[in-house]
Structure prediction request, 131 residues.
Amino acid sequence: MITLLLAVNFATAGMAQVEDEAQPRYTGIASYYADLSSSGKTLYLTGSVTAWDGYTSKLTIEFQERNGYSGSWYTKNTYTDTGSNRDICAINESITGTTGHSYRGYCKFQAFDSSGKVVDEKYEYTAILYL
Prediction:
C-alpha cells in the first residue's frame, strides 16, 4: 500500500511539471537586435525589432556618450522606428564620434496589441566603444 501511494504522488508531481513546461510563454516580440560598431571615428548604430502577426512594434535607441572611460553617460540623440505585424522596424545610423569619448546605445524594444497596450518589452545596452 505504501508503494502505491508513493507512485501516485510521483506521477501527479511529474504530470504537473510536464504541464508547466508544455505551456507556451506569451510574447509579442518575434525577434530583436542591437549593435554599436566603429570604423575609425565613424560609429554605426544599428537595431531592429519585429512583432508577431497582429501586433505593432517600436524600437527606441538612445545614443549615449561620456568623456573618457568613466563619468556620467548622457544621451546625445534618440532614434525611433515603428512597424506592424512582421514588418521589421529598424534603425541604421552613422555617427561621427570624438576621440577620447566612450559611446553606447540604450535600446528599448516594444510590442503593442491592437488597443495600443504594451504586451512585451525588452531593454538592452549595446557594446561600449571607446574612441
Summary: The mean pLDDT is 84. The two ends are 74 Å apart (CA to CA). Helices lie at 2-22.
